[in-house]
Each structure stands twice: as structure tokens, then as C-alpha cells.
Amino acid sequence: MYLLDSSGIESFFSEVPQDSWFQDVTITALTAKATLLATQRYSRLSFREVARLNNIKLINPQASAQEVYFSKLFAQYPGGFQEKMNQNEALLILGINKEQILNLTPQIVRSRHRKMMVLNHPDRGGSPYMAMKINTAKDLLDKTFTFK
């Protein structure tokens, strides 16, 4: 049994050899305890707290698919529509990216048009203006784009 003198805990550790397994056991025990405490604390966090700690922006679960899509689209491409639509704007409206342009077919344009119209149809609460722009984009690509 070790007794601590006035110098405190230092005399206790001075009697233990420096290359002892005691240091390894102590470090392992402290690491295990810290891991358990961190795991317990993390398990009690809400999803919002976890997202805030990781700088993740939560999307409102009540938001419609249309709102989520356009919030991402407008964040990526700020600004409004051009006065006269060109091919670049038509591709952006239909969500066709650079990699898909080389393999663009009428079927891809048709499927993208259908997908965008489902998200933006005026009968489902979408904007008539956006529906018009989507239809214009499809018509423009059908007329001007050279398909493989």
C-alpha cells in the first residue's frame, strides 16, 4: 500500500517503473471511460442538435418536392430567366447536366420534361409560368438539338 506524502501523487508514480504496464492500463481505462461518456451524451442528442454540430442545414420536412428542388436550383443558379430562352437555359430548366449532353436522346428529354411537369403542374399547385417555361424548354430542345 502506498501512502501519499506532502508531495502528493508524484511520490506514488515515482515508485512505479516508467515502462510499466500500469501506464498502459490507466490510459486504456481513461480512454474507455471517455468513449462511453461521449457515446452516452451523443445518443441523447436530437437530430437537430447533431445537424447543428455538424453544420448541416436541415430541410423542412413539410416542404414540397417542388420547393426543395427550386431552393437547390436557385442556390446553384442565381438570377431569373433570360428574355429569350436558349439551349443552355433549356438544359438547366429540365435538369440536364454536362455529362448527359453527349448522350442526349429524345427519350431523355421526354422523361425529364415529364418529371419536371409532375413537380410543377398547375393542377398540383405548381406555377403556370414554370409549366410554360418547362414546355418551352422541351420544345426548344426538340427543335434545335441534334440528337445521336
From TrEMBL:
It comes from the Eukaryota. One of its GO terms (biological process) is protein import into mitochondrial matrix. One of its GO terms (cellular component) is PAM complex, Tim23 associated import motor. GO terms for molecular function: ATPase activator activity. The keyword Membrane applies. Essential component of the PAM complex, a complex required for the translocation of transit peptide-containing proteins from the inner membrane into the mitochondrial matrix in an ATP-dependent manner. In the complex, it is required to stimulate activity of mtHSP70 (SSC1). This is DEKNAAC102439. It comes from Brettanomyces naardenensis (Yeast).
